[in-house]
Design brief:
The protein has 92 residues and is mostly beta strands. It has one helix and eight strands; from the N terminus they run βββββββαβ.
Length: 92
């Protein structure tokens, strides 16, 4: 892994609020708690860091919290075809 391709920043919102993360893709990441079947999308913010995405699509279970249903096939597709990374989070 080339270190100059990594993007770091603090998260705002959701289960990773205040946590500093480093990811491989520039636009953000999908945080997955596979055991609980939950996922959260964090997008890169203009001022730096990553903000919890509350944009609605058919995977958004709770719009107020940004919690989504984890869909493994969609997660693999997103990680392969887009500019977001996928990370695992420990059960909260």
């Amino acid at each position: 892994m080339n270190a100059d391709r990594l993007t770091s920043g603090a998260c705002a919102g959701g289960p990773l609020d205040g946590v500093e993360v480093t990811v491989r893709k520039p636009d953000g990441f999908l945080a997955v708690d596979k055991a609980a079947g939950k996922a959260w999308v964090y997008k890169r913010q203009p001022e730096g860091g990553f903000g919890l995405c509350l944009e609605h699509d058919n995977s958004l279970t709770y719009p107020a919290t940004g919690e989504r249903v984890f869909d493994e096939a969609r997660a693999w597709q997103a990680g392969h075809d887009s500019s977001i990374d996928i990370i695992a989070v420990s059960p909260l």
